[in-house]
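ok so i was messing around last nite and threw this chain in just to see what happens. nothing serious, just curious
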Amino acid sequence: MNLGFPVTAQRLEPGEKVESRDYVIEAFRTFHSVPTLGYALREKPRPGRFNKARALELGVPEGPLFSRLHRGDTVVVNGREIKSEDVVGEPRPGRTIVYTGDTVPSENFLPVLKDADVWISECTFADDMANKAEETLHSTAGGVAQLAAQAGVKQLLLTHISSRYSQDPAPLLADVKKHFENAVIAEDFMEVEVPLIE
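result:
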């Protein structure tokens, strides 16, 4: 199969990162019956908004100099130096998506989850099966929801649901919504829009 782009496998340990021009992927330890990792995909900050009216007011002609200023360069127009910060606003934050896979929820995740746009978390059991969750090192709906609320997560996507809830996931959602409102149970081929932060 030709994907149209290269795929490189790289083994990561907790705390290691993979970095590209636009994003960083950070691996962190999760807690299950075998060694497991979670991953945080963090977009790097985007340039601030370009103020075209201010650039024109400063005498910058439309064209390549606009792009250079938006990239952070300083330009000279009619002998006058114009800095990027004269016409470009503060950098805009990137988005963060966190995936934890099979694990018990842990306060150790809080620094990684802080203000994440999306957390994709397992949610195997409803709260009335907390003992089973503890025994099998899985999550309860309430445990995940409380951690999401504590971390300031914006949206929670629930996966790895026990088959006992396949016909009626209402008990899981009820337990989640006691602590965290913006949660949905993920489905095959589901698409989720994660808006840019302006």
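not much to say yet. The CA atoms of residues 130 and 140 lie 6 Å apart.
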